[in-house]
Amino acid sequence: MKRGIVRVQTVGKREKGEDSYGNKYSSLAAMWEQEFSQPKKFAPEAKEDKKRIGGLANWYTGSNNYWNNVSQDDAGMLQGWERVTAADIECSSNFLQSYIKTNKILPAKAIDCGGGIGRVSRELLTKFFSKVDIVDQASNLIQAAKTNVKSERMRNFYVSGLQDFEFPDKYNCIWVQWVLMHMPDEDAVKLLKKCKASLAKKVSSFASY
């Protein structure tokens, strides 16, 4: 989620600063503690966005609102960058090709977690796996993915936040790219455990970065 600018200054071994809403914090840990605590109460005349600071539900609501209102292209996915370097797909392809060959992975089913408009599904996963699912919290991005990925290998398009998503199948590959940094640590760990439980019993792969 695009949270706003956080200005930080180092004092000894502790970082303190304030965010773009003017809230001051004694440390980065204090900022995150408030972010995921119960919503902080502000005066009635406070701006609406300030009223929403604090609370895990508000974190995910804000995230969902943000991603449902970005442009449905690379610039929207990358918060302003207009394109992704070719090295991204090239290196990912080399990794998958080598890993599948070395570990004799069955290239049957894969799922693209936080797949957005379907770039990774289109340019990578459908090149290697016969059945590909995609999940993203933003319904408008999933609709864009349905248009962007013209492949008979695409199977299911799920609208769900990964913190709530229950894998409906066992997969030979679970791909999680540029997602975990948007999740609180506790939910990220829960997701990783669900990924582990949702890998096919035969040799499978999991990729996250």
Q: Could you describe the 3D structure shown?
A:
- The protein is built from eight helices and eight strands, in the order E-E-E-H-H-H-H-H-E-H-E-H-E-E-H-E.
- By secondary structure, it is α/β, with parallel strands linked by helices.
- Strands 6-5-4-7-8 form a five-stranded parallel sheet, covered by helices on one side. A three-stranded antiparallel sheet has the order 1-2-3.
- The N terminus is likely disordered.
Descriptive labels:
single chain, 209 residues, alpha/beta, 8 strands, globular, disordered N terminus
State the strand order across the main sheet.
6-5-4-7-8
N→C terminal distance? 17 Å
State the secondary-structure class. Answer: alpha/beta
Radius of gyration: 19 Å
Task: Put the structure in a nutshell.
With 209 residues, the protein is an alpha/beta fold. It has eight helices and eight strands, in the order βββαααααβαβαββαβ.
SSE layout:
Layout: E1 6-11, E2 14-19, E3 24-25, H1 28-35, H2 48-51, H3 56-67, H4 74-77, H5 86-103, E4 109-113, H6 119-128, E5 131-136, H7 139-148, E6 154-159, E7 173-176, H8 185-197, E8 205-208
Parallel strand pairs: 4-5, 4-7, 5-6, 7-8
Antiparallel strand pairs: 1-2, 2-3
